[in-house]
Amino acid sequence: MKRLGVLLSGRGSNFRALLAATREGRLAAEIAVVVSNVSDAPGLAHARAAGLPAFFFDHRGRTRDEHDAEVGRVLAAHAADLVCLAGYMRLLGRAFVEAHAHRVVNIHPSLLPAFPGRAAQRQALDYGVRVTGATVHLVDAGLDTGPIVAQRTVPVEAGDTEESLSERILALEHQLYPEAVERLTSETWRIEGRRLIFLAR
Fold this sequence. Notes:
Elements: E1 2-8, H1 13-23, E2 29-36, H2 42-49, E3 54-56, H3 64-77, E4 82-85, H4 94-99, E5 104-108, H5 120-127, E6 131-138, E7 148-155, H6 162-186, E8 189-192, E9 195-198
Helix pairs in contact: 1-6
């Protein structure tokens, strides 16, 4: 069974969705360790309450590579096969990404490559798109630029606010992320250029 390491900075709702999926049998993997760069992150508290190994590593006063190396050591100590970002509000450095090539996955609240970075829902509303959604992608050294694993759409409705649109996208994320991680950990796939291709069983 594949072992997941989860990195989070806040409430960790996608972490909770992954945890629920593992415990309900919808995701044939186990969460091995949870790491946060925020000491009072609600997601970290939830992990501890769930009996999972959970660690806080402060990034302040340290270089990105120093902090990433500490995170990498605890992931290795818990034999994490795949690293799942769940609201981790730090850009991982090139050294970490290269050391974990094709083993770090993220979920983003837009149809990438549209609206990368922060406030993707606000970007979508400001641009006037009729459809947005969520994207699960592998992480590379860029900002939301790695190969796409899965996408699903959400219509932008008349009168939507950033909050209402965010709520609908988040509900979709909680379904999409466990499904995508299940495919990554149970199916055979390869990378061709920018494309992730799942191979026929």
